[in-house]
Each structure stands twice: as C-alpha cells, then as structure tokens.
Specification:
The chain has 485 residues and is an alpha/beta fold. The protein has three domains: 6-98, Rossmann fold, CATH 3.40.50.2300; 195-353, Heat Shock Protein 90, CATH 3.30.565; 372-483, 3-Layer(aba) Sandwich (Rossmann fold). The chain has 14 helices and 17 strands. The protein has a five-stranded mixed beta sheet with strand order 5-7-10-12-11, covered by helices on one side. It has a five-stranded parallel beta sheet with strand order 14-13-15-16-17, with helices on both faces. Strands 1-2-3 form a three-stranded parallel beta sheet, with helices on both faces. A hairpin with an 8-residue loop joins strand 8 (268-271) and strand 9. The chain is extended, with a radius of gyration of 30 Å.
Length: 485
C-alpha cells in the first residue's frame, strides 16, 4: 500500500480485513521500501498524490517490475485526465477516498481477475511446451526410425549369436520410442498413455448412470451405428466429455424434453467445426448430443468454450465444463462443433479419429510383386534406408517433400500403387499432398508415417497409419495389405 496518511491507511486496512481476514499489509510512502515489498505483493493500492513518491511513479514501477500484480489507485479528487492517465499506466481501478465502500469489491475482483489471468497464462505456457515437445518428439522418432530399419534389415543375414547382439540394441530403440510416447502422453495429461477406448461402452455407462436420477419430464435416447467404435484415448476423460455434454443438455431443458445421443462413422469432407482453424477431411467417430431445450443465443455461442464463461448463477456453474470438454477433445486429436436455434434446441458434435490399425511384425516378411511405391520423407537417412528395404520387393520412387512427391505422382499416376508418406514435411505437408493426389486419383492408397500422435488419421485421411519408429516387417505388412487390395 503506497500511502503516507496513517489514518487513511488504517481505514483501508479495516475495510479490507472484513473480506480478507488473513491478508497481510505493508504500508509505505518510500520508493525503496515499496520496491522491496512489491516482490511479495498480490495487489497494490496507490495514493496518487504523495509529496515525495507519486502514484504515476508507483504505477510505472509495478508495470516494469511486476506486471502480473494488479494496482488500484485510491486517492483524493483528481481531474479526469489524471484518472485516464492512471488507467493508461496500468491501474485496474480508481477509487476516491471519500467513496471507499466499493474498495473490498474492487480488490476481490482484481485478485480474482489476476488468478484467472495467471491460470490462462499457465495454460498457454503448457500449450507452448506441448507444441515444442511435439516437434522434438517428431525429430526424435525420425532419428530412431533409421536405426530401427537398419537393424531389421541386416539382422536376418547374421548368424544367431550376432542376431542376439542386435536384438538387444533393438530393444533399446523400442524403449527410447516408448519414452518419447510417455512424455507426450504426460503433456496431454492422459495419465499413463492412450489405449483403445470403446465409445459405445462409454456412452452406455453415461446413460446407465444418468437414468437413475433423470427427472420424470426428461427422456434420454441413444442411436449407435452397428460398427466397432474404437479410438485411441483415455477412457476416463472421454467418459467425462460425454457426461458433461449430456448433463448440459439436461440442464438446458428446465421444463422437460429429450436428449438424443448418436454415434456414427460418417466421413467428413471439408467440414469446419467451431474448434478447428481450417476445414477438416477424414474418417472420424462422430458423437452428437442433441437436446430440445431453449437453445443458445447467437451473440454468446462463440464464447461458450472460453474458460470461466457461464450464463448460470454463481452457485450453479463455474464456466469450466465446456472449456474442459474442448481441452480433452483436442488432446485426443479431435474437434467439437455446436449448432443451436433459440427455442428449438442445441446439438454438440464431437469428432474423434479412429484408433490407428496395428500391425504385428510377422515371422516371415511379406514380399511384394514389383508394384510401384512412392516413398516420401524429408528425413534423407530414413528415406534412403526405407527405399533400400523396399527395393527387394517393389519398384520404388522417392521424393523429399509433398510438392516434389505430387509432381512424381502426376508423372506416374498409372503405375503408383501405394504412397508411403511422412505427415509433417516442409514445402507441402502430408495432408495437403494427399488431398492434391486424390484430386488426380480419388482411389490412391496411402500409408501415413507419423512422427507424433498428431491428427494424422483424420487430416491426412490415410488408409493405414504407422507410428515412427516402426519395424521393417510392419511397413512391409502394411504395403502388402494395400497393394494386394
């Protein structure tokens, strides 16, 4: 507290102690003492007019040394220009000393806003760390892929005792790849890694639990396509997504109505969900939760996924439900959309990519029949080793990026049976490359090589996805499957 009047300081402390009985105050009119105390402060109040240390200087110090600490100016009457200057200098509020009744409310609001801001900053930092880690994971998996292929290629030509030595090295490579996956899973908050999750079972669990406490004027129905619906994810988190959406639907119908939960696998083509930055094409499991409630007003529908945004009373909601849903869906490489009409109801649509197909390494390598394969990767060592692996069974064309691959494919469209491509590349990435190729030939077969657990199966629309690093026999088995189709 920057204040030189002991009586004013005592009054301010008395008002704040009613709302914040555990808070500690440091009162000073000295610049050096203020700087020292600022390091431990959660909030600053400033008297604008002091003889030796003014409010403008105090606000400048806060902005320079502790920009995360909110500052409230509590002063005598000053002109409108000086009030405006205080706000320009970073003050979050201005109160006259003869009207201090609002001070506790202003302080509580400033502290709460600071907490919210710090939470969002922390979330942004976590997201930035996740993006950085994802890029590192991609590079590490690329580095591991070359040795994995090389070991697999030379192992079978060695005597058994030499093979055992290489197998031990291979185990080390596999453990390194698993470590990368565990780090990525931790950053997602998936608590132990993603496993196959049956979406039908999760919907059934939610409905079974809620039907026991449904109001008599609300009915819940489910319609699920007769297909297996497995996604790679965290079962608890996916259960939470479905539960939150269904509970929200029920709360949107205080006068009664029906909730419909549907599950289908209809492919999407250039569809832009609300949570996506650009249109999406691919194969997704689609969960729709529809209510017959009052609908969402057009002026607020764009804000519903923001943290702490809520139209409910303070004792009924925190505003974190839908932001949590969005975070979980994005962590599962999915998307979410919402459509609503006032008085008619609302539909939330969740798109989750299906779990990638797994390919166990067979005991004997499946050989091709000299079909033409286009191999695309910007990691030159991996490109060379994978090409040498495949040349014994296929005619191999290579490209170092999507743009180059598109030209090679255009020149050889009649011959290329399967395209094997990295997902993340310079010049033109895998998803855009495949989209352009399918404009030339809608039936082109694609194997995606993913260096991270990105949105590969959805945005690249691949027939098969292999996570790097992969065993040589896994790639050969995937190629055999597609080239024989």
């Amino acid at each position: 507290m920057v204040e030189d009047n002991a009586r004013d300081a005592e009054l301010i402390c008395h008002l704040l102690m009613r709302q914040l009985p555990d808070c500690e105050f440091t009162v000073t009119g000295d610049r050096d003492r203020f700087i020292e105390a600022l390091a431990k402060a959660d909030l600053v109040t400033v008297d604008y007019s002091l003889p030796s240390f003014g409010g403008d200087e105090a606000l400048a110090i806060v902005r320079e040394r502790a920009p995360h600490v909110p500052a409230i100016v509590v002063s005598g009457s000053v002109g409108e220009e000086k009030v405006a200057e205080c706000f320009r200098m970073g003050a979050v509020d201005f109160l006259n000393k003869d009207r201090l009744a609002r001070l506790p409310e202003a302080v509580m609001g400033a502290i709460e806003n600071r907490r919210t801001k710090m939470t969002l900053i922390k979330a942004q930092r976590t997201q930035n760390i996740g993006s950085l880690a994802s890029g590192i994971a991609h590079d590490l998996n690329n580095c591991l892929s070359g040795p994995m292929i090389a070991v697999g290629m030379v192992m079978e030509d060695l005597p058994p005792e030499k093979q055992e030595i290489l197998k031990k090295g291979q185990v080390g490579l596999i453990k390194a790849a698993e470590l990368v996956r565990q780090i990525m899973n931790y950053l997602r908050g998936s608590n132990g890694g993603f496993q196959p999750v049956d979406l039908k079972r999760q919907i059934e669990r939610v409905v079974e639990m809620l039907r026991q406490r449904l109001p008599k004027n609300i009915q819940i129905y489910t319609t699920m396509e007769d297909l297996p619906f497995e996604v790679a994810g965290n079962a608890t988190q996916i259960f939470q997504v479905i539960l939150n959406l269904v509970v929200n639907a029920m709360e949107a119908m205080p006068g009664g109505g029906s909730v419909n939960v549907t599950l289908n696998s209809q492919p999407v083509d250039h569809y832009k969900p609300m949570s996506a930055l650009e249109s999406v094409t691919g194969k997704f499991a689609q969960i729709c939760v529809t209510d017959t409630g009052m609908g969402i007003a057009p002026e607020i529908i764009s804000k519903i996924f923001e943290p702490f945004f809520t139209t409910k009373p303070p004792d009924k909601g925190t505003g974190l439900g839908l932001s949590t849903v969005l975070s979980i869906v994005e962590a599962h490489s999915g998307f979410i959309d919402v459509t609503s009409a006032m008085g008619l109801g609302t539909t939330f649509t969740v798109l989750l990519p299906f779990a990638p197909e797994t390919h166990e390494a067979p005991k004997e390598k499946p050989a091709g029949k000299r079909e033409t394969i286009l191999l695309v990767d910007d990691e030159l060592t991996l490109l060379e080793l994978a090409s040498r692996l495949l040349e014994d069974y296929y005619d191999v064309l290579t490209a170092e990026n999507g743009a180059e691959a598109l030209k090679v494919y255009s020149d050889n469209r009649e011959k290329v049976k399967v395209v094997v491509s990295d997902w993340s590349m310079p010049v033109m990435d895998g998803p855009l490359m495949v989209e352009k190729m399918r404009e030339i030939n809608s039936k082109v077969r694609v194997i995606c090589l993913s260096g991270t657990d990105s949105k590969t199966t959805g945005s690249m629309n691949a027939d098969i996805t292999l996570s790097k690093p992969f065993m040589p026999a896994q790639l050969l088995a995937a190629l055999k499957q597609l080239s024989a189709a």
